Amino acid sequence: MEEKIIKDKLVENFLKYVAIPSQSDEKNKDVPSSFGQLELGKVLATDLKDLGLSDISINQFGVVQARLPRRGEGKKSLGWVAHLDTVDVGLSDKIHPQIIKNYDGKDINLNENVVFSSKENPEVLAYIGDDIIFTDGSSVLGADNKAAIANIMTALWYLKENPQINHGEIYIAFVPDEEIGLRGSRKIDFDKFKVDYAYTIDCCELGELIYETFNAASGTLKIKGIPAHPMSSKGNLVNPIMIAHDFISMLDRAKMPENTENREGYIWVTDINSDVLNLRLDFNIRNHDREKFEKAKAYLYEITEILKKRYKKAEIEIQIEDVYDNIADSMNDENKIAVERLKEIFDKLEIETKIIPMRGGTDGSFLSTVGIFTPNYFTGAHNFHSNKEFLPIDSLYKSFLVTLELMKDKKL
Asked: Which residues form the Peptidase M20 dimerisation domain (predicted)?
């Protein structure tokens, strides 16, 4: 099948899915957190049915699942997980992409107020001469993660159009609310997702391959002080803000997000809410290394005990909860073929492999906690979570080729 036909189908699918607003809402504790995700899920369920998949379902949490029975003699069962939501970064939830044909390397007026500068975004210069999908400057583009959805759906379409191609048993899960704590992947019906390993397509530029993410925990420090009028506060007032100040001062500034990179972990104080009586401080702990991750948690418990002894009149409580694990921790001799296949296919397609430790998590980070090894590969897009996000169509096509090769039956 001609490359142009496939690219046209990829773009058609991408534009179709980004046209459905599906921004998640962190303030809403329900799953899914937004109505648009349900609407997108219903569209995908219909499309999956048209593509001939079996066991299509949408559960009460908006998770769309389906299965494509194997064609051939292979034994592996493979999964793909992509998320329905786009991120809320204070921009419009309505996405209006524009395609710049044969990009010439110059600045682009995304709208009358927003300019895409090639000087500020020099990575775009690698795509001079390519067709590129940009935003209109009012929203993110939504390649995170609708480029993945379009990729998967186009690969399934291709397999339907080419019945001579054998493929493995393929399981699909489209999940909500990845952007707000990997909530949706926790709601997958794993009785309907019996895979040997799975993949996400949720990182950026051409060639990225990720099988190492943070171990992640979130925590809350709660402090109840004692209020007092200034005329009688000496010896009586216990200010929760000053106790929180002591807590923060005992953290290592060199191990905070603004001062770390690569595999360096951090503790990040994200929110403080207080009055003269009660204070709540929220924080995140991240580290690729499990031992260092556990030591960071232990240190926070330790300094909390110090504060309790220092401020005996105050009520001080800390809670820490693990959020997700490093994907690499679930890799073993049996499932590491998932990464080996990616490297093999990248070489076959002459894609330079860029293995990086992700300073974040994917749905695969949660899946690793239930024993499903789930490496991650590129969408082809740049500038996720920004109105300067862009997606070179040739990179999207190459990501599709990776997906298609992974789906093909290798009799493994």
From this structure: 211-314
Do the beta carbons of residue 272 and residue 310 sit within 8 Å? Answer: no
Answer whether the bond into residue 230 is a cis peptide, omega within 30°.
no
Contacts of 297 (CB under 8 A, 6+ apart): 217, 219, 285, 320
Query: In this predicted model, what pLDDT tens digit does every residue of 227-238 receive, in sequence order?
Result: 999 999 999 999
Pull the structure tokens for residue 228: 């007092």
Task: Scan for tokens 């099948």, then name that residue.
Answer: 1
Helix axes 393-407, 143-161, angle to 10 degrees: 50
Burial class (CB in 10 A: 0-12, 13-18, 19+), 387: buried
Amino acid at 55: D
Please report how the helices 393-407 and 3-18 are oriented relative to each other, as an axis angle in degrees rounded to 10.
Answer: 100
**The whole model's pTM is what?**
0.92
Give dist(CA 219, CA 183) in Å, integer: 17
What does the pLDDT look like over 90-146, one tens digit per residue? 999 999 999 999 999 999 999 999 999 999 999 999 999 999 999 999 999 999 999
> Which residues are designated catalytic?
85, 178
| DSSP-assigned states of every residue in 45-81 | HHHHHHTT-EEEEE-TT--EEEEE--BSS---EEEEE
Strands 266-274 and 278-287: antiparallel
Q: Residues 36, 23: contact at Cβ < 8 Å?
A: yes
All residues at 6 or more sequence positions from 33 whose CB lies less than 8 Å from its CB, including other chains: 24, 25, 26, 85, 176, 177, 180, 183
Q: 140: how many CB neighbours lie within 10 A of its CB?
A: 24
